[in-house]
Amino acid sequence: MMFDKIKPLIDKFKIYQGYPWAHHCLMLFPICLYVTVSGFMYGFYGDGPYAFYRVLRESYPLVTNTLRFITNNYLSIYVVYLFILIRALYVRDKWELTFVLRSVVYAVLFITILTHCMKGISGTPRPGIIGPPRPFEFAKGYMTFPSGHAGAIITAVLPLAFWIGKKGVSAFLCLVITAVCFSRLWLAAHHPVDILGSVVVASLASRCIFLPRRPPDNKSNNTSTRTIL
User: Fold this and answer.
1) How large a percentage of the chain has pLDDT more than 90?
2) 103 within 8 A of 209, measured Cβ to Cβ
3) 76-131: pLDDT as tens digits
């Protein structure tokens, strides 16, 4: 039957239990705490945060240039996925290959497609643009909610941290998330609420991507036993 032929492909994208929510929350805690506290101080949207970060940008040009470099090169994280892909192909590890496939497919669905649609539907103006939202117009300058950069980096980093499972790596990747999201605020590319919206979307994406480090029905450390899909 046709279903029997496509079932192995469908199984590659099923949702697995055992998601590490505590790890998830710790990774996102710094940026969420900062955005929340600064939001209550200067506002989550509009002229308040825009004026605050404008002063900082003009006062600290070195920081501005550094954050601009970070925001322009944030997708470099996918080099790690490329190494995982090459290794998976080299050792013929189908479980590892499935992890990379899930990461790419769900990132496209949640970040490239869903986030873009939400931007156009909300029609929220970029910081510094005067005027009300222009929903459903998909107009340039009015597609800011949620942040694509923030959503993309969170979607890429969280599953990677869970997959590697090293505390030091998780700490570094947490800094990556925080730096990229913070750069969007500092550079007046997004409102604070845009970052929070991205956290929600990217968290859903990460939940879908999540794959146990070993196949659930085989806990052996033997690499050959991982090629089950």
Assistant:
1) 80
2) yes
3) 999 999 999 999 999 999 999 999 999 999 999 999 999 999 999 999 999 999 88
What distance in Å separates the CA atoms of residue 202 and residue 132, rounded to the nearest whole number?
A: 26
Distance between CA atoms of 43 and 204, rounded to whole angstroms? 26
Whether 155 contacts 206, CB under 8 Å: yes
Q: Which H/E stretch holds residue 151?
A: helix 148-164
Enumerate residues 6+ apart whose C-beta is below 8 A from 124. 133, 142, 143, 144, 145, 191, 194
Per the structure block, which two tokens stand in for 35?
A: 């955005």
Record the pTM: 0.89
Place of tokens 């998780």: 170
Residue the block writes with tokens 């968290």:
203
Q: How far apart are CA 82 and CA 87, in angstroms?
A: 9
Distance, in Å, from the CA atom of 172 to the CA atom of 195, rounded to the nearest integer, reads: 20
**Tokens read off for 111:** 């970040």
Omega within 30 of 0 (cis) for the link into 127: no
Q: So what's the pLDDT on residue 130? A: 86
Q: How far apart are the C-alpha atoms of 9 and 6, rounded to whole Å?
A: 5
**CB count, 10 Å around CB of 187?**
18
Report the alpha-carbon distance of residue 128 to residue 144 in Å, rounded.
Answer: 12
